[in-house]
Amino acid sequence: MRFRLGLLGHGTVGAAFHELLEDRAEAVEATVGMRPELSGVLTRSRGDFADLLERSDLIVELIGGLEPAREYLLAALRAGKHAVTANKQVLSQHGEELYEAAREAGVQLRFEAAVGGVVPVIRVIHETLAAAHIERVHGIVNGTTNFILSEMTRTGASYDDALADAQRLGYAEADPSEDVNGRDAAAKMAIVARLAFGAAVSLDDVPYEGIERVTGEDIEYARELGLALKLVGSAERVGGGLAVRVYPAFLYGEHPLAAVNGSFNAVTIESPAITEITLSGPGAGGPQTASAVLGDVISAMIPPATLPPPAIALPLVTDVESAFYMHVEVADRPGVLAQVAEILGLQGVSVKSVVQRGLGDNARLVMVMHPVLESRFDAAAGLIGRLDFVRSQPRVIRVIEETF
Ligand SMILES: NC(=O)c1ccc[n+]([C@@H]2O[C@H](COP(=O)([O-])OP(=O)(O)OC[C@H]3O[C@@H](n4cnc5c(N)ncnc54)[C@H](OP(=O)(O)O)[C@@H]3O)[C@@H](O)[C@H]2O)c1
Predict the structure, then answer these.
(1) Residue 197 to residue 339: CA distance in whole angstroms
(2) Is residue 399 predicted with pLDDT exceeding 60?
(3) Which of the two ends of the chain, N or C, has the fewest CB atoms closer than 10 A to its terminal CB?
(4) E strands along 26-135, which residues?
């Protein structure tokens, strides 16, 4: 028996999927009892969507972007066809509409490749850990930025040189802005949060910061303090609500994400019942992503359907406790450290470690603080920035401590 797949998009992932399907169709048939076959391909220059839909049991959407991907996915689901997509943009902005359409039609919508490439983040959170009460997810979900930060750490390269290397080696697009500014990771964390916590989280709800302002000096001082710099997406329960954010953060050396280097992605899932699980692997690439897509197709060929249940309401929290690293240049004169410490103390910020280094007439203070509410730390950093002996605005990066 044949299982007919309509393929939308034949670019990096679409072409790799086509090739993988031809290679693996027989093995899939031996396992599932049906042979997956392409019923047709749609790109900008070939194919007709209505005709393809008519002749397919499942639509594989590998176009990317919002439209026409959203329109095609909705049409497929409403026509009672299963759908598989790798599209984080459409899921993070129109997920509820798509889940609802799939639920109403009683068909599957699968999207493993939308987060972490071939790393089975979606499946593990949504299916394997369905019984666990997830408290927090931390993820390195953008391979481009992880490659850049790893290169800066490994070779001492500047941000610009590491980005140029990433582009030369194919780890970064010609226009890398959505990767380096954190928006790509924010879209993926919105999808992860929806599954981990059941609340509707859209890309617009996720504040994000990128890595464009990270300097070699940040990384050098971090090394002295035993920290690794990563672009981290976090989604966690906070005081009855939910905080979902993306930001550059220092991780203590023992944190499972600290050793994830190069273009690899990784996600750490924390829950009291399971302690902690870390999944890591290639986060992108045509053949790798195609493998996750075919895995989803195979799952859809075998009922029953699994969809996120209707969303529950959870308030989104933005003022969250975090540990901080602060790096500030000051005039090298007596009493400076005491004044900085006093301001921190008045805001309830306690210092975990300090490195002070002379720079001629100036000195550089590098401090790591114990966890404190972000609003309190921001207030302290603002006051410190206004002191007359301060020679540069404080540079602030969050620090993630191993807490499980
Ligand atoms: N590349 C990766 O490593 C990776 C990893 C994880 C997830 N993804 C996701 O996978 C999806 C596909 O990415 P990709 O890298 O394969 O993209 P891509 O190389 O740019 O390919 C896009 C394909 O979609 C087709 N297309 C674009 N607009 C269309 C339209 N309006 N109607 C019909 N076809 C259209 C293009 O057709 P033409 O050939 O006619 O231009 C092309 O074949 C995206 O959602 C992406 O986020 C990619």
Answers:
(1) 43
(2) yes
(3) N
(4) 35-42, 58-61, 82-85, 109-110
- Residue 93 shares a structural domain with residue 10: yes
Q: Is residue 176 part of a domain?
A: yes
Which two tokens mark 126?
A: 């949504």
Co-location of 106 and 138 in the same domain: no
Residue 8 Cα to ligand 1 middle (Å): 8
The answer to whether residues 377 and 273 belong to one domain is: no
Smallest CA separation from ligand 1 atom 32, residue: 44
**Model confidence pLDDT, tens digit, residues 242-284:** 999 999 999 998 999 999 999 999 999 999 988 999 999 998 8
Q: What CATH number is given to the structural domain containing 10? A: 3.40.50.720
Write out the residue range of the structural domain in which residue 370 sits: 321-400
- Which residues, judged by CB distance below 6 Å to any ligand atom, belong to the binding site of ligand 1? 9-14, 42-45, 62-64, 68, 86-88, 113, 117, 284-285, 289
> Structure tokens of 207?
């504040």
CATH number (domain holding residue 212): 3.30.360.10
Closest CA to ligand 1's atom 41:
44
Calculate how far, in angstroms, residue 73's C-alpha sits from the geometric centre of ligand 1: 14
Specify the number of domains making up the chain.
3
- 3-state DSSP percent of the chain in helix, strand and coil, to 5: 40, 25, 35
How many angstroms does the Cα of residue 349 sit away from the middle of ligand 1?
A: 47
How remote is the CA of residue 172 from the centroid of ligand 1, in Å? 15
**Atom from ligand 1 closest to the CA of residue 44:** 40
What is the average pLDDT across 163-175? 90
pLDDT at 66: 98
Q: What is the pTM of this model?
A: 0.88
Q: Which of 81, 88, 188, 230 is catalytic?
A: 188
CA–CA dist 238, 122 (Å, integer): 22
For residue 16, which atom of ligand 1 is closest to its CA? 16
In a domain, 186, yes or no: yes
290, two tokens: 């195609």
Q: Annotated catalytic, 230?
A: no
The tens digit of pLDDT for each residue in 278-334 reads 999 998 899 999 999 999 999 999 876 566 778 888 999 989 999 999 999 999 988
